[in-house]
Amino acid sequence: MSNSSEESAVVRQTRVGIGTDRHRLEVGRPLMLAAVAIPSPHGPVAHSDGDVILHALSDAMLGAAGCEDIGAMFEDTDPRWKNLASRQIVDEVLKKIGKLGWKPLNIDLVVHLEKPKLAEHRDSIRQSLSEMLSIEPAAIGMKAKTGEGVGPVGESLVIEALAVVQLMSTEE
Ligand code: MG
Q1: Which CATH architecture describes the domain 12-169?
Q2: What is the pTM of this model?
Q3: Taking a C-beta distance cutoff of 8 angstroms, is the pair 155, 115 a contact?
Q4: DSSP state, residue 145
Q5: CA of residue 71 to ligand 1 center, whole Å
């Protein structure tokens, strides 16, 4: 009983969260990934910029902190969030989890996209996330997978992202 505050401090040290996102692809639309513009024949259909990495990542951070998802936080009927850039969603999420005593420690990402190949953009995506989240690029994993020509990813009907994040307590 006497050391219950010490125990809860240990429990609060790190948290893990997961998030996913999917958008339909349409020819001629811009493709943004982690706020990096990627040259592409197609891009996501979305009210916002349809940045699947930032949407999946935001949900992962909110989940790790025990909060509701970005759909609940940024209801599309709320005029404050009209035309909100995904970068701003991440900033709002960082503020929210920050108030709860959390900050990102490391993240790992998988993007499912048939084309274009993302390997040459991997470093710029990690650099962009590094600046956004104030963590080292070495703490950011980023894999790109094709759909091997089959299914909605393989037929270039959708782009998907999966994010796993570890949060660290900011409390002593
Ligand atoms: Mg989305």
Answers
A1: 2-Layer Sandwich (3.30)
A2: 0.91
A3: no
A4: E
A5: 9
Distance CA 79, CA 77 (A): 6
What are the sequence ranges of the domains in the chain? 12-169
Tell me which residues have their CB within 5 A of the ion that is ligand 1. Answer: 21, 55
Q: Which residues of the chain have pLDDT under 50?
A: 1-2, 9
Ligand 1 centroid vs 2 CA: distance in angstroms? 46
How confident is the model at residue 2, as a pLDDT?
Answer: 46
Distance from the alpha carbon of residue 49 to the mean position of ligand 1, in angstroms: 8
Whether residue 98 contacts residue 60, with contact meaning beta carbons closer than 8 Å, is answered with no
Ligand 1 midpoint to CA 128 (Å): 18
How far apart are the CA of 50 and the centre of ligand 1, in A?
A: 5
> What are the residues whose beta carbons fall under 8 Å from the beta carbon of 154, sequence distance 6 or more?
114, 146, 147, 148
The CA 75 to ligand 1 mean position distance, Å, reads 13
